[in-house]
């Protein structure tokens, strides 16, 4: 399985260093980007699947027509938002791995409001209200982590991770109980939200305005971080906590509100999944998007605009998984291997010019 | 009667998490947090099941499962220790890697059936009322895992090897000064941790459910990571935490059988909420018991 391209990465560090000096950085980048695809291709061909055909289908389905492109954007939308939910706190020196749970509770809140209060509401009231409910849900969930950090001095990495499971079971509790569709023949899901509350869709695709919302929020986060005083303070706090303290920043308040804002972003992802795609809440709505978002944020070095690219890439690989399942009968999750390989090479290559 | 059922069930369904958390404990004591434990468990569950199907021998399956877990952890060790990659991102990636690769290879094993490990009542001891039912009617892996805990404690706190391992997590300079390569120690700890997590996976597929299902660990690896923190990095407390987790699962089965009006979801949540509550209570002590090298991972400073 060892090829030239992969071998270069697997050799000891000092050899790799010397290599890196010789090859131009651009070529090096190309190797890191291409190697996982080569490796995955070899892996698939060992099992009698033509990898070239797969990659062609993958690119075709992503860029070939509007429908396929829309599918990728749909997949990238929640990843972009949960990615922002990881990237924004990261700028303040916080590690939020709770996007998963914040998304789930956001989806729960927005479904709850949609089913019980907004059933008769027209779209122009209902959709913004649902969006706010989603943001509220995600924000409340993140506030638990933030409160425990600020008042209980608990590490946010651990609590946000643990609360992901609590969130999943909370959603499970509601879809098996209070929110269960009476006409569902005992299947655990909520009633469908009213058609007026579904996000408008681009003709001929399933692409909804959710992507525009996510992209706009990414731009807002970028603007706040790069151009405003508050964003500057966040970056100071993340860069040097002591300096922030000496400058008289109210650290606890900043930690709290940055985490809550992150939770709101992830909660909006949950609302978009409900109003844009699913139409009803299921126990596994949005599963894994939180973790994928965290990885997308890492790949983008927590830069909100670069994040749009990495979220798109991960979305593309995800859509490829579906075509893999239809085309060659492999479980769709086997595309996780490709995604993991891409990340392994990036992780192994390290970051030059950190921050 | 019901109580002994629940307690026995706690051991039965808690053992996989317990093994994984003991492995994670080794790795974290040496200064590496491995969220990829989930991947190691999946690798172990799938690899162990496959080899048991092929050979009919669950012990060979156990060995193979352990090795699969070790292989997955080896990726983590290489990236985190040699390439100095971000530990959390690497671990999460490993989790997805494990999900993907076991779904791929496990596809043909989904409908297979095996004999695997079955409960072996220990003569005499299993006849003791109550205690016999709770403790002495389990599969061999469960017995072994109970024996493992004091062994690990002894290794960590009473041997030279243990001191080296803890020094790698607390102050690697000290280790370095005494002529030992901290990276080597750390790598060994991560690999051993992966091996144990793999066996935890085997217990799940070969001894507990006797089947392979895609993504069957369902977050148990992440629970194992959380339990280590809950346990303040102490083996016996990690065992207690794992059985608490198992008890909540067993309780849920009992509650359903009895038709009690308690939602099973509250019981599912219980272990996680208990973990957070316990963390709050032991917070002061935790600060001092956290391996110093780990603190840097949690505050996002270590790795690139």
Identify the notable features of this structure and list them briefly.
heterodimer, A: 355 residues, mainly alpha, 73% helix, disordered N terminus, B: mainly alpha, ABC transporter involved in vitamin B12 uptake, BtuC, two-stranded antiparallel sheet, 75% helix, globular
Reported CATH architecture of chain B: Orthogonal Bundle
CATH topology of chain B: the name is ABC transporter involved in vitamin B12 uptake, BtuC
Approximate shape of chain B: globular
Number of helices of chain B: 14
Shape of chain A: globular
The succession of helices and strands of chain A, N to C, reads: HHHHHHHHHHHHHHH
Would you write up a description of this structure?
The complex is a heterodimer of chains A (355) and B (304). Chain A is an all-alpha fold. Chain A has a domain at 75-318: Orthogonal Bundle (ABC transporter involved in vitamin B12 uptake, BtuC), CATH 1.10.3470. In chain A, 73% of the residues lie in helices and 0% in strands. Chain A is built from 15 helices and no strands. The two termini of chain A are 34 Å apart. By secondary structure, chain B is mostly helical. Chain B has a single domain (2-298), classed as ABC transporter involved in vitamin B12 uptake, BtuC. Chain B has helices at residues 2-29, 37-55, 58-82, 87-106, 131-135, 140-158, 160-170, 172-177, 182-208, 220-230, 235-258, 264-281, 283-289, 292-298; strands at 120-121, 137-138. Chain B has a two-stranded antiparallel ribbon with strand order 1-2. In chain B, helix 1 packs across helix 10 (220-230) and helix 3 packs antiparallel against helix 9. The radius of gyration of chain B is 19 Å and the shape is globular. Chain B starts with a helix and ends in a 6-residue tail after the last helix. The model of chain B is unreliable at 300-304 (pLDDT under 50). The interface between A and B is large, with 49 and 47 residues.
